[in-house]
Request: fold
Amino acid sequence: MIICINGEFLADDKAKVSAFDRGFLYGDGVFETLHSYEGKVFEWSGHWRRLESSAQFIELKLDHSSEEIHGWVQELLQKNDLLRKEAAVRIEVTRGVSTLDYAAEPDRPTWVVFVKPVDRVEIETWQKGIRCGSVEASWLSPQLSHHKTINYLPTVMVSRIAKKNGWFEAFFVDDPGYVLEGARSNIFIVEKGTLKTPPLRGAVLAGITRQTVLQLAREAGIPVEETMIHRDQLFKADEVFMTSSIVEIAPILEFDGRKTGDSSHPAISSLQRAFRRRIQTI
Reply:
């Protein structure tokens, strides 16, 4: 695998960052995960805007433009023979190399970009239905949850909980019982023909696929509400699903060991088809 570090393309066994990089020392940085379809990155501009917003939040000045980083991604896809395949793209920016001073201001950020193949067969398996469960929302930081920082220990820990329980994804549920978001995804339900998802307040990330699905639903004439969703609603809703950049749209068939939604999930199937059509327009 070829990896890009600060614009230099290196074999993975040669790609290294300093032991004093603040990303390694403190999780001081931001990132984005994107989905490339045959060399075309889905919603590049949306991901870039979110990267800029996250960097601004932690007061990290990006020293490369969207066009430059897009060029690195394209070169990585070419060098890794992924221009005609699906791939996950990871862009990570740390504050850079510094002394052991929490408030240090390094000379320049560290950029790490890599790509890896995505298995369409595996995705299509997930898109037939997944099992999920809940974890306490106390894992979340309301200040950081709106941004994609590399300080990802809460996600790591709840993902371990999910794996131990045989879940595909763990969703954060607050004390009153409202579902906020998944460790790496957003949640939706369909109730009496209306598509509902938690609003972007509190600890909910503005998912790029979330926004695309809302747009597709509106274009299809499906009523949309951004409203709080109680855990109990998952078991009464007509359909329940999650969204993410890599998985796209996947029905949730079981939550905390209980069946959810209609197994035929007609609205989800319609949105999946619309999503595939949107991909063709990249």
User: Anything to note?
Assistant: The CA atoms of residues 191 and 237 lie 5 Å apart. The chain has a mean pLDDT of 96. The longest helix spans residues 44-57. The radius of gyration is 19 Å.
